[in-house]
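Quick illustration for those who missed Monday's session on complexes.
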Amino acid sequence: MPRGLLDIESLTRAEIEAILTRSKDFQPAPGQSFKRFDILRGRSVVNLFFEASTRTRTSFEMAAKRLGADTVSITASGSSVSKGESLVDTLNTLAAMRPDAIVMRHSASGAPHFLSRYLPIPIVNAGDGTHEHPTQALLDARTILDRRGTLEGLRVAIIGDIAHSRVARSNIFLLSKFGVQVVLCGPAPLLPREMGEIASGVELTCDMETAIRAADVIMMLRVQLERQHSSPFPASEYFQFFGLRPEHVELARPDVVVMHPGPINRGREISSEVADSQRSAILNQVENGVAVRMAVLERVLAA
Ligand code: NCD
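Prediction with N-carbamoyl-L-aspartate bound:
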């Protein structure tokens, strides 16, 4: 089977470390622009996005181009998916053009895993439903490492719509492999007990202050309204109880790193003051996303 990158759960700590270490070679020095490499010259990567995306799609495209590969990006709304073609037929059609890898985002959890069993081409998961978003967890780890130098022993609070977050799942898998103490926090209907059980030592709390006290990292999540079929809480009160404001940041460690995978909703899950503060690493995450995806594409296509 071709090796792609489907999830964090099945990666070893050593494999994750290899990607994170390699990504450093692709990070530009402060004030410099990204360097271009010839590592994937002559190779082609198809980006296939069945869900909305700004940063992930652009980031994968930039990463492939900066390694010298050719890329084609396709969105579901502009493809034959909107004419009723099935997922398998769409993928087989693309595979017949012999790209070297397919980067894929889909609303069904497990879609890339299912397809990777049938296609002779490596698949990189760019987010599958509420399941995993492996490159997001990798770029988050890169960002924490850049600011704090280590993951071991840190306390990371992940706050928001835990139930629907593939970002939370991938981060729980990754961080717990590195001895991080993970605290999950959100309104009770969005904080399922089983999310705390996917790794040992994960704490759950509905209280923001408990989650944030002494945290080294605060990772905020968007409320994923598109995945909620009924309204589990009054939306107008969300910010009052779970929105990150400057007074919360005071409770964390003085060098706390504030993160958010984006897209952010100012005044909903995070205040502008915090999002734009010195503590915020939100744009560093975006920048690191390109370097980490370069390391991932190199690994996937190097075979
Ligand atoms: C996340 C996603 O799509 O899972 N965004 C991203 O990839 N940066 C989170 C979100 O949509 O809220």
